[in-house]
Write a structure and sequence with these properties.
The protein is α+β, with helices and mostly antiparallel strands. Helix content is about 45%, strand content about 15%. Helix 5 crosses helix 6. Bound molecules: zinc ion (ZN).
């Protein structure tokens, strides 16, 4: 699985890294804030910030893309493509979680991002094992979305599909990768959703019309 170095919750502005995999965290850049669906990728620069924070693009590449967007104004188009890709990934994860076949058009779209050949495969040596690492080498600024396609491939091929889950808080739209041994993780975050749902369940049990023990 793709290792990535985003530090939990301490990075840029209000980006959250609770999903356990960068692909799920990318989908989670759309989240609920005070019951409103909120897009954290508010402009092209935010998309670059997110990619830099997750180390999917280097600072050098990000600066090169930034300059390209300044020159030809294509940042807004790339942001639109990123949002479309994110929506497709959301649909795909829902289909995986619900046990239905993933729409082939989504696979085709992911492959279209890979077809630009903006990624170079590197072998990385660790103390006891090795990793495959895809390094983004874009020839055009819009090629940065190939990095999202690459982490999607990583999640789907190196991970286990049944560990991809939706947060059980019905008013939350986040996804996460469950790494617990017995597949028991239920919430995107214990602090943000788990505790709230447990308190709600506690008070439901305590309602006076309900007799019996809890
Ligand atoms: Zn949640």
């Amino acid at each position: 699985m793709n290792s990535y170095s985003a530090e939990s919750n301490t990075n840029t502005a209000d980006f959250m890294f609770l999903g356990g995999h960068p692909c799920l965290d990318f989908v989670n850049t759309e989240m609920m804030v005070q019951e409103q669906r909120t897009d954290l990728l508010t402009n092209p620069e935010r998309l670059l910030e997110w990619l830099e924070t997750t180390s999917l693009v280097t600072a050098e590449t990000a600066n090169w893309v930034r300059q390209g967007w300044l020159d030809d104004g294509s940042g807004a188009l790339v942001l639109e493509q990123a949002r479309t890709l994110r929506q497709m990934l959301r649909t795909m994860f829902d289909q995986i979680i619900d046990g239905t076949t993933v729409d082939p058009a989504i696979i085709t779209a992911i492959n279209a991002y890979l077809a630009v050949q903006a990624l170079q495969l590197n072998l990385v040596q660790h103390a006891h094992d090795f990793d495959a690492e895809w390094v983004l080498m874009p020839r055009e600024p819009q090629h940065i979305l190939a990095s999202i396609a690459a982490i999607t491939v990583d999640l789907l091929t190196a991970g286990e599909q049944r560990r991809i889950k939706r947060c059980e808080n019905p008013s939350c739209i986040r996804y996460f990768y469950d790494t617990t041994r017995n597949h028991s993780r239920r919430w995107c975050s214990m602090e943000q959703c788990g505790n709230r749902m447990k308190v709600a369940a506690y008070y439901r049990r305590k309602r006076p019309q309900q007799k019996g023990s809890d």
